[in-house]
Amino acid sequence: MFERFTMAAREVVERTQQIALESRASQVRPEHLxxxxxxxxxxLTVRVLNDQGGPSERLHAELDKRRSRYVxxxxxxxxxxxxxxxxxxxEVVSRMGDDGVVPRRNRSRAHLRFSRPSKKVLELALRxxxxxxxxxxxxxxxxxxxxxxxxxxVRDTLVxxxxxxxxxxxxxxxxxxxxx
Length: 180
Prior knowledge:
CATH architecture: Orthogonal Bundle
CATH topology: Double Clp-N motif
Radius of gyration: 17 Å
Strand content: under 5%
Structural class: mainly alpha
CATH superfamily: Clp, N-terminal domain
Helix content: 55-70%
Oligomer: single chain
Shape: globular
Number of domains: 1
Order of helices and strands: HHHHHHHHHH
CATH class: Mainly Alpha
Largest sheet: none
Distance between the termini: 23 Å
């Protein structure tokens, strides 16, 4: 499948590893893919997001806020469930370290495994490319795969930044049509 990735999409996947490692995450999650997509303001994906009302600065800020809030993909509903049994997730995270992650000593620094949801994003990116009759997988397809997979951090980041996830597919198709 990776042979169908554009150079920009390959760079996103490589950057995803770096972001996950720097976050000291246990595996690559969709939020890391999304952060990697936002890295290059010149790529089609970021232009589409900006055109849809999500300025780059706000997307970065909203994503960082959500990424640093919880550990390994836990979200507001997880925090609420823990709160119902007397556990304050934010307090637990604050005691773990500066970035809310417990250091892992024996983990390889060369490569992290992709989580099941991240693998699903890559599969969905391929499906989006096929559905749009594209013979390649670009950053725009990765964005559509992220939206379709439904990761709460990605979804909430988009909504908080003013982007309607339900209109992204049409916007991507139009942007690709205009670029081609």
